[in-house]
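Why do we bother with holo predictions? Because pocket geometry can differ from the apo form. Keep that in mind while you read this record for benzoic acid.
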Amino acid sequence: MALNLGDTAPDFTQDSTEGPLSFHAWAGDSWVVLFSHPKDFTPVCTTELGAVAKLKPEFDKRNVKVIGLSVDPATSHAEWAKDIADTQGHALNFPLIADHDRKVADLYGMIHPNASDTLTVRSVFVIDPAKKLRLSLTYPASTGRNFDELLRVIDSLQLTDRHKVATPADWKQGEDVIIVPSVSDEDARKLFPQGWKAERPYLRKIAQPS
Ligand code: BEZ
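The structure, written out:
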């Protein structure tokens, strides 16, 4: 069954490069980025894992744990990890799930049979501390993902959880945000006493709340 935004992210126990792992317990009170890779020893995946290892301090700053998945055993992951460190200049610094029996891939719908019935697509799931699914992305095997974009979405999700605002197209930290449509002008005056710029009655912009 497809996972929809707002659903509880399924729990599982599976082997990983850091030993057997129970997903919800491992996640604890953090946000999580769970992302799948088609297979070990593949070129695009190798660059992606190096890129995430490099960005790990940025995920840490946002209270986000990252965890990869590939449908090969932990022994294979351990060999591949050496290549990742050697070629990308950044060693794996987060767990890589060894989903040899595709238990997690099936649970999260990471196998799209009309693309490949053996390899996972490049899925990304952002899960909040309440274990609710907040974002899902699916990329084809041939396209490496942009992990800065994931940080941007996480910044938006964390901001919009704290304030009744949404973020416009291409928004980045520090730029103006939008008062959500469900807030009436009357309530907006109380929430944002500094006022707003209304480009249309429904398009009310304010500086990013701190
Ligand atoms: C890769 O990770 O390089 C890859 C995997 C499957 C198909 C195409 C590319």
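The mean pLDDT is 97.
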